[in-house]
Amino acid sequence: MLELNFANMMEEVIGVRGINVKVLESLKVQVQEEHRLISERKLPELEFLELPNRDISEIKKFAQEIRKDSDHFLILGIGGSALGPRAILEALSPLHNLRKTPKVFIYDNVDPRTLDGIFSVIDLKRTTVNVISKSGSTAETAAGFMLLWEKMKDIHGKEAGKRFIATTDPASGTLRKIAAENGMRTLPIEKGIGGRFSVLSPVGLLLAEVIGTDSSHLLKGAGDIHEKCSTYELWQNPAYMFGTLLYIMNGEEKRNINAMIPYADSLKFLSEWFCQLWAESLGKNGMGMTPYPSVGTTDQHSQLQLWMEGPEDKVVIFLRIGDYGVDFTIPAVFEGVDGMSYLSGHSISELIKAEEESTELALAKRGKPNMTIHLPSIDAYHLGQLLQFFEIATAFTGLLMKINPFNQPGVEEGKNFTYGMMGKKGFETKKSEVEEAREKKACWKI
């Protein structure tokens, strides 16, 4: 079971920059109030908590079909619709495209060079495209979909729809309508599931099944950590404690930067997934905490200097792995070289664990707050725990901050300007605003 160790956040361990137990105790009533909102499902967007109990038979059926008739699986999506699947792919099947089929590609950034690269290596005759968009009108996803649809029509004719799976709203929306009219298979994103909380819905589970992972293990892990985090007792609930500690550090100590550093290359994209979840959920009303993704040990050689001697505005979150599932013993070579021979006989996993623990200790010794999430192994069960843990912690922290953790009003203005620039009906005034802004910027060039 996932475990949170927060000793290096506490005053008793790191000194005056740590949190006093009395401060934690003073928030008990508030924690219980927010727990009630969660346990009684007072917000419809808390539906993500029910995902571990959903029927996944149709997802498994579609994945079996894809593995049988496709050499390539192409996901079109952005935000949580791409970050979630990519986190699962990299964590559970690293170097996937070099070892297994169907080969997986995720197109999310509307970079034409990336799309050209994908077209150069996939065979559209043997490709299934998964279009992920709840509304179906997300500009980036819609553009990729339109391009792929034309190409697939040229190749497959009237059968083109059979090469697509639309993961979208179960009853309405642009993509739902197109799918129905063109014979596409569909999977639902239920109304209460927001994009960045959708990784354990068909958004992420179809990809998991396509790469050969039994998604029921992801859901079992998510369900087990949900059960552990279903108590209002702060000292027994790791998700609530995680959020409360960062809430205090942000409010009391002005530490509003959260560095996420997993000690596993395959969890780097999970760190990026967390960054969207944390930033988009909590960055509102002049409040929020800025996450940024790192990876150990690599970023000990690029970021640690800043964490040790830079501004007092950070909390470092370590992800420690218990069992990597594979290991190598460092051989007894170069025995006469002092700078290397000390490593002989030790294992690679022993070294990376020593690096992680040493970095924790070095930061704590300087009074720099940090905490560690222990993950027993990188497998579907424990990944499911980790994903659900962060989602519960994020929802709880938003409620603790007295904001809505499920909306993203700040994103909409940029979208509206894009709609205006691209000529979408009803957004003509936004196009005019863009043109006026361009004129103002014209003289400020060198």
Tell me about this structure.
- The chain has a five-stranded mixed beta sheet with strand order 1-10-9-7-8, with helices on both faces.
- Helix 5 (80-92) runs antiparallel to helix 13.
- It is globular and about 65 Å long.
- It contains 19 helices and ten strands.
- 49% of the residues lie in helices and 13% in strands.
- The longest helix is centred in the C-terminal third of the chain and has 21 residues, at 380-400.
- The chain has helices at 11-14, 21-26, 28-39, 57-69, 80-92, 96-99, 112-121, 139-156, 174-181, 202-210, 215-228, 238-253, 268-282, 304-309, 338-341, 348-365, 380-400, 409-421, 428-441; strands at residues 3-5, 72-76, 103-107, 127-132, 164-168, 185-188, 257-262, 290-293, 314-323, 370-377.
- The model has no long low-confidence stretch (mean pLDDT 95).
- The protein has two domains: 3-38 and 219-400, Glucose-6-phosphate isomerase like protein, domain 1 (Rossmann fold, 3-Layer(aba) Sandwich), CATH 3.40.50.10490; 49-213, Glucose-6-phosphate isomerase like protein, domain 1 (Rossmann fold, 3-Layer(aba) Sandwich), CATH 3.40.50.
Write the layout of secondary structure elements.
Elements: E1 3-5, H1 11-14, H2 21-26, H3 28-39, H4 57-69, E2 72-76, H5 80-92, H6 96-99, E3 103-107, H7 112-121, E4 127-132, H8 139-156, E5 164-168, H9 174-181, E6 185-188, H10 202-210, H11 215-228, H12 238-253, E7 257-262, H13 268-282, E8 290-293, H14 304-309, E9 314-323, H15 338-341, H16 348-365, E10 370-377, H17 380-400, H18 409-421, H19 428-441
Parallel strand pairs: 2-3, 2-4, 4-5, 5-6, 7-8, 7-9, 9-10
Antiparallel strand pairs: 1-10
